[in-house]
Write a structure and sequence with these properties.
With 79 residues, the protein is mainly β. It is globular and about 30 Å long.
C-alpha cells in the first residue's frame, strides 16, 4: 500500500476547511489559520477526526499540531 498522503502543491484558502489527506505548501500566507506564513501543512483524515501537522519553513525544529473532533478544531500546539 502506498503512502496515504500525496503532495497537493500550493493551496489558497483556510486551514479550517482542509480535510483531505495531503501535503500542502503555505507560500506567503496563502493558507489562513496557520501558526505562520511560510511552511508545509500535512493533513491526515480518518473516519472520526482530522489531524494537521505544520512545519515552519524558517525553522527545522518548529512543529505544530492540532486536531478536529466533532467539527471543532483544537488550538495549535507546538511540539
Amino acid at each position: 500500500m502506498g503512502w496515504p498522503v500525496a503532495s497537493k502543491g500550493n493551496y489558497v484558502g483556510n486551514a479550517n476547511d482542509m480535510s483531505n489527506n495531503g501535503i500542502y505548501y503555505n507560500n506567503n500566507s496563502s493558507i489562513t489559520n496557520l501558526p505562520n506564513s511560510y511552511g508545509t501543512l500535512i493533513v491526515f483524515k480518518s473516519v472520526a477526526h482530522i489531524v494537521q501537522i505544520y512545519m515552519r519553513a524558517d525553522s527545522v525544529t518548529a512543529l505544530y499540531a492540532r486536531q478536529r473532533n466533532s467539527g471543532t478544531w483544537s488550538d495549535w500546539k507546538e511540539l
